[in-house]
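Onboarding guide, step 5: your first structure request.
Type a short instruction followed by the sequence, for example:

Predict the 3D structure of this protein.
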Amino acid sequence: MPQQPLIVVLSGEPELVEEYGLALTAAGCRVSALPDASAKRTARSVVRRSATIPRGASIGLELTTLDREQKRRSLRFMDGKLPKGAILLSSSVTMAAHDQAAWLRHPERLLGMSVLPSFAARPLVE
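The system replies with structure tokens like these:
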């Protein structure tokens, strides 16, 4: 029986959502992005926008680095809507993961990571 693709939900800064969306799609993941008022839609976009979390989503990826309030809203939304057991990854370049975890009902699922633009253009190991 063929394995189902990993379902990843993205939220955050449009450029990062597009870049991570392209990389995840190329890796065989099914990608969906939460709408963002500042999102710029491009003709080459492979990321499907949706106001809901798809069934079976197993990873939420929050990519906001500068707007603290937007990050808080995004993380709380995903924390409340992602299925139990889903992982929540969040950019922790400008804010520590333990500070972000304080906003969540399920802080144990949050993992911080450094999210840098243009990662696809150069080799990067974190």
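Each response can be followed by summary notes, for example: The first strand starts at residue 7 and ends at 12.
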